[in-house]
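Figure 2 data, in text form.
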Amino acid sequence: MGQGQSGEEKEVTLQNIQELYRKFASECPSGNLHLHEFKKIFGINSSSTEEEAAYMENLFRSFDTNKDGHIDFLEYVAAVHLVLRGKLEDKLRWSFKVYDRDGNGCLDRQEVKHIVKIIYRIKKHNDPSITVNIEDICDRIFELVDKNKDSQISLEEFIDGAEKDPWVMEQLKLDIGPCDWFMGQQEKKP
């Protein structure tokens, strides 16, 4: 989920936050960001697949920390901070929570296949030449990350595997460009 620590990190200033609030208040006059608006931000629309829509719904729920069905400005700022400035381990913990669809604290093969499939469908929108074998990617992830070979990836195995292996990180990363989107919001007029 944009987990990598890149050299292109941009500083988010108080002025940026104030401008973001102005934009948030303008686009979300109710003071809340709803799921359909959230999907629109990330380019998920009626032509998107069910898997992409389901992934964005899970992502939305991960930001809706009080589980009231919308993201208020404080939740929004916390999400922006995590995505833009959060530590790698925090981003990995958050990604794991998003990927763990059943919330049992482990990723099974079905969950890993599902997320890899969605990540590659979304990546394919940006680069139609991408071709992958989801089964092979899933098998390799389990080979590299599932240290105790119980066919489940724990949070600790997930973090350890992603931090130590750039290939694993690349497979589990979705570059949705939140930093560019955030900074782009500063330039748009309401």
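Caption note: Confidence is low (pLDDT under 50) at residues 1-9, 175-183.
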